[in-house]
Amino acid sequence: MSTYHIDLEDSKEHGIVVVKLSGRAHAETIVDLLHELNALAERDPAVRVLIDETELGAGYVGPRDIGRIAQAWRTAVALHSIRIAAVASNPVI
């Protein structure tokens, strides 16, 4: 199962919220992360997010999981107007 950590302290210095994902990819973690980032974007519409996936491993994410992730993205409307970037050392992720 994957986990994430949102580093708000680093954002004070650099203006970017760093999110670190680790473990094996799991849909529920991604859905939870989208909800939390949406709440953050609602509080600060100028927030910028960098998602660090270098410690994230491959996991099973099936078609139903992809649908749940897509639905979470569609309902997270505050995320649609902020800048989000991701970095991953593994091209599969």
Structure keywords:
Transcription Regulator spoIIAA, single chain, 3 helices, alpha/beta, globular
Outline of the structure:
It contains 3 helices and 4 strands.
How far is the N terminus from the C terminus? 15 Å
Radius of gyration, whole Å: 13 Å
- Structural classification: alpha/beta
The CATH architecture term is 2-Layer Sandwich
**Spatial order of the strands in the main sheet?**
1-2-3-4
How many strands?
A: 4
Shape call:
globular
Strand content: 25-35%
Domain module count: 1
CATH topology: Transcription Regulator spoIIAA
* Average of the residue pLDDT scores: 91
Sheet having the most strands: 4 strands, mixed
* CATH homologous superfamily identity: STAS domain
Instruction: Bin the helical content.
Output: 25-40%
CATH class: Alpha Beta
How many helices in DSSP terms?
Answer: 3
Order of helices and strands: EHEHEHE
Structural account:
This protein is of the alpha/beta class. Helices cover 40% and strands 30% of the residues. It has a single domain, classed as Transcription Regulator spoIIAA (2-Layer Sandwich), CATH 3.30.750.24. It has helices spanning 8-14, 27-43, 63-75; strands spanning 3-7, 17-24, 48-57, 83-87. The model has no long low-confidence stretch (mean pLDDT 91).
